[in-house]
Write a structure and sequence with these properties.
Blueprint lengths: L9 H7 L4 H18 L3 H12 L12 H10 L6 H10 L5 H5 L2
């Protein structure tokens, strides 16, 4: 899945990950695959995953688009399957929710 360079939301992915293009490419593929299987956008998957990682995470995604705001809000009610969470935790360098809670 390719994210258009015109799409301003693609900048959010770059802000969340290291500058290493290989890591970035893997992240885009994993988010894209999870989004396709769940009929969601990659940003919704990223937001839902972060919200499910820990109860003390507060996300503040910005947008100037009402459509993107609706997408962001819908992510709060998404339940990701365990296999998707495992894949996403894998690209986070093994920093699982359990590890985050103990540090």
């Amino acid at each position: 899945m390719m994210i258009s360079s015109i799409n301003s939301r693609s900048r959010a992915y770059r802000a969340c990950h290291s500058s290493r293009s290989e890591d970035y490419a893997v992240t885009i593929v994993v988010l894209g695959e999870a989004a396709a299987s769940l009929q969601a956008t990659p940003m919704q998957i990223a937001l839902a995953w972060l919200l499910q990682r820990s109860s003390n995470i507060l996300l503040i995604p910005g947008t100037s688009s009402v459509a993107h705001l609706r997408e962001n809000l819908a992510a709060a009610t998404m339940e990701l399957p365990s296999d998707a969470i495992t894949q996403l935790d894998g690209i986070a360098g093994g920093r699982s929710a359990a590890n985050l809670a103990t540090h």
